[in-house]
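ok so i was messing around last nite and threw this chain in just to see what happens. nothing serious, just curious
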Amino acid sequence: MSQPPLPRNDAQMRSASDGLRVKQITAGYGSKVVLDAIEAVIPRGKMIALVGPNGSGKSTLLSTMARLMKPVAGQVCLDGKAIHKMPTRELARKLGILPQNPILPEGMRVFDLVSRGRFPHQGLFKQWSEADEAAVQRAMTLTDTLQFADRKVDDLSGGQRQRCWIAMAIAQDTDIMMLDEPTAFLDMRYQVEILDLLYALTRDHGRTVVVVLHDLNCAITYADMIMFLKDGQLVGDPVPPEACTAQVISSVFDIDVVVTDHPRSGRPFVMPVSGHWA
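result:
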């Protein structure tokens, strides 16, 4: 199935020297190439959803943008600097990452987990401060996790634990936050809670949020811009939800779909066409 081109925003590409820019990134694992010459700009103060079929390179792209992976070719630049050449602590004060399966030490309290977000702001001669305490309190208040402060993270529900991890990322106090499938394995209620929170971070707090989402309708509902990936390539530039037509979605996912308007938001709502009902 051919892939119709998505509209390019050349003005945005030219004006984003002070943001996060992916420049001809090729990345993979060993001899296997997963991403092939990806070029994109991440707009500031927006929620950007990375969407595509399984194996399309979404998590690899997020990991490369967050410097968890080193590209084979190309570079990721933040404010005009290549992130793989930036000091780790400097980058961690500007960009935060929450992987899909973060590792949690057994028996850790919620307050201690969230406090880990302040590590980039400390050093040999700068230990825990009132500013650190205030940042943790703000993050826990924003995520409604302050009530769990003294509880063990392991004792919480999946949605509550995820809010605690996001509180840690917020406490890091970075302008850019990256999250890999933060709603995975959560039921509908907790998915909505997490996505409402991420949406508020952009609208009310000016954060840039880049998120890998498996659910296409969630991406369309919450994201300002959507990046479609297929076979390790970006299908056009990031586009607004309104550009998510049936033709584009069918070409990316290789499935027939019907796209209608959501009765509340007015944004596109995607329904797959099952062969059972054809």
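not much to say yet. Residues 1-16 have pLDDT under 50 and may be disordered.
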